[in-house]
Records
---
Amino acid sequence: MTLQTELEELRQHARASLLKATDERVLNELRVSVVGKKGALTAILKNMKELTVDEKKEIGQLANQFRDEFARKVEEKKAALEAAAMNAALASETLDVTLPGTARKIGTRHVLTQTQEELEDIFIGMGYTVVEGNEVETDYYNFERVNLPKNHPARDMQDSFYITDELLLRTHTSGMQARTMETHDFTKGDLRMISPGAVYRRDTDDATHSHQFHQLEGMVIGAHVSMADLKGTLEVVIQKMFGADRKIRLRPSYFPFTEPSVEVDVSCFKCGGAGCNVCKQTGWIEILGAGMTHPNVIDASGVDSRRYQGFAFGIGLERIAMLKYGITDIRGFYQGDVRFLEQFGK
């Protein structure tokens, strides 16, 4: 039997087998058996060494024609099988496109996250850097470095959850102020930073208090920073958060880490200062604490307080969100009630 005859028989066998192929697995097995490395075509071509040059040329052309034709037929058969499978699926899985779809609820940013990010955007626009830190802090950075030595009576107001005698869940984010001052290069400019995050204090949980809440503390240290800079900064922040017609006032207060210290009030956004139930008829709402950074805090970080001074402030994110959105119970932030949270999706 000549090689031409063997090629023709292989062609006839391949055509018949293609017609019988019922799925892609069988089709692939056929392809391998015909034109694979150990297939029938390869076996036929191994006998070409006994042919003359002209015969080899002729058989080579026939083999190439067969290989190309077979590859095209395999692709056509594959496309036909896929189409048949698709038609069968469509016939068995009828879909009524006129039926209403099932709406999927899409989550959104938590209202506290939204409030924090809104404040961050305001401060970043004024040249502040956002600095985050660990929620587990040392007693040294949490208290001593912010002018609260051991046994200081002001610690009672910020009692927290201790892990060891020297490790605790931070009561404020002020520790990051001390850590940032240590590494800041004042020859390259003033330090402007905010530090947001969760803080913890041993407190009674009720409508306005929680053992866990969120703060955003800020600090500016430089050679020519004054109380006027503090007031101007807070005015910008409050007006951007609550409206351009809001006013602030500073009242003397006491914080161990600032001197002088102030409580900051904002004019009531419900009555405009005339007096109502929200502001308890005073026209003002207490919103945050601030003051000029105590020289002891600056010196403890290795910075010369005779050359540099600054201000610091602490904002409760829950407080801001409650005032902005009229929320009356702080516990709503933490209960995960979708009915509460979806009010702030937009």
Note: Residues 121 and 294 are 27 Å apart (CA to CA).
---
Amino acid sequence: MKAAYYEQIGPAKDVLKIGEMDVGELGADEVLIKVHASGINPSDVKQRSGWGGLTMRHPRVIPHNDGAGIIESVGESVPPSRIGERVWIYEATLPRRFGTAAEYVVVPSEQAVFLPDNTEFVEGACLGVPAITAHNCVFKDGAVTGKTILVMGGAGAVGNYAIQLAKWGGATVIATVSSAEKAEIARAAGADYIVNYKAEDVGARIKEITKGAGVDRAIEVDFASNLETNLKALKRNGTIATYASDSDVTPQIPVYSLIYKNLTVHYVLVYAMDKAAHQQAAEDITTCLKAGVLRHVIAGRFALDEIAAAHEMQESGKAIGNLVLVVSH
């Protein structure tokens, strides 16, 4: 099969290669998928670049955890009826070394989730990391019906799905953005209120919107940068669910400010979530797909041979939405 791979940590153009490789062996509870699209996430490019001291776990790695395609064969413990099924894929490289940036990928059967016909493969490839992360952030403390949810970075891949899932769950959503273009993306996702943090006082605007009551939960893209704002915005007994803190990976935490409001902070990493959380997310996401209530923002589509350029685009921070490799049509 044709695949993209790297054998050492480094810049995308220096280490990413395209070549022929053998298709992985199929285990009893696994499925072989012909990949149509491969999703690119920040964690994929961080692993390849060695961000934060990350190192090679295997001599050769095919990158990308997320993808979508069609099941071509199944292991002996998997129902043969799954052959020919359209699926979206999550965590293909965990703990394996061969991900979705290839014509074929082998994953555990449970990590290949039914993809409804109303969802294109390139859209299905966007789901894994962003949508599962968003689901866990939104619903980690239970149902959100009647709650007010603050989504920081509402135009980002995770933030966009968080808005949509929170609205599906019955919440009122306030989203922050940094531009008019991003405001339109957040609005299309269903956000009830949009706050441009470049032009407005976020804390004051949230106080105005909630009539001084504050928000129940905050979904956070940069814990360190936005902690002060969240402390002001949250109600007593509120929660912060954060999945990143790239502005400062060792932030100072004002413990008593959290204690005085009895706040809870959840640190969310999709790769560390338990099986039950993954399964619930997959079930709810697929329900939303079937109902046609999820929108997907695709910032760029690249051929497999263009993977280095796609990684550079992801690293640039300029992509508004998901980046996808179109592996086969």
Note: The chain has two domains: 2-126+296-326, 130-271.
